[in-house]
Amino acid sequence: MFAARRSAGWALALSLVGVVLVAALPAPAAPELPPRPATATYVNDFAGLLDAGTRNELSEIGRALDEKTGAEVVVVTVPSLDGSPIEDYALQLFRAWGLGDREKNNGVLLLVDKERLLSGESGKVRIEVGYGLEGAIPDGRAGRILDERVLPLWQEKKYAAGIRAGYLAVAAAVAEEYQVDLSADRTLNVLDGYRAAERGSDGLPWELLPLLFFLFIFLMSGWGRRRRRGIWWWGGFGGGGWGGFGGGFGGGGFGGGSSGGGGASR
Predict the structure, then answer these.
(1) How large is the angle between the packed helices 52-69 and 159-177, nearest 10 degrees?
(2) d(CA 131, CA 263)
(3) Which residues of the chain have pLDDT under 70?
(4) How far, CA to CA in Å, does 111 sit from each of 48, 67, 122, 227?
(5) How far apart, in whole angstroms, are the C-alpha atoms of residue 177 and residue 144?
(6) Angle value at C-alpha 203, between 199 and 204, nearest 5 degrees
(7) What's the pTM?
């Protein structure tokens, strides 16, 4: 009995020593982020991947989109992430710069790592989406923008063209969310060819809503009469399923300042 207690005591002591040693280890160094611009700068080409014409075009589009919607779509290229995962780097940069409106969280960051881009490594590009625009650009759509717009051009070594295509596709998604009339704006009408091209199956087609509504009424009326016989299939959804959706869309999980939300990396 004494030997068992002594062994248990040694085990506890060793565990405590391990915890102390782990706690004493230095935390991983935070990546060095580019300084926050003094004014809203939509194109920040620190890696020199863009030509002057592309920089000017994207800057004008970003400014015009911001004026019409209040959303900030920003592209940042960096020479290297210094070994940091692009997801961590993008999120920290998004929060440090405070992209988008503080209340609406409607910023989007397109981040490109030149070092990984030229070496062909994964983790070379990320679309980081603010919470307020996750409905407009869910993870799946962000991934398709990268897969269908950006990467094919990069495979041809057209790096500036790929960044431009990705930025325009993101800007088009934001304009669509805010129902911007692209034809009425000479700067933004270039986005018309990118609008809704990557929506895919993330959103429910609006054309189906009337059909689903009538189907819902039909099922309710048919099963409602059966309730008197002890069968009521919708009761579980009323207390759980629909209640959960109501809380989610009510904004309880959002409103985190200017922090980033979802997105996609490649």
Answers:
(1) 10
(2) 10
(3) 1-30, 196-261
(4) 13, 22, 13, 55
(5) 17
(6) 130
(7) 0.70
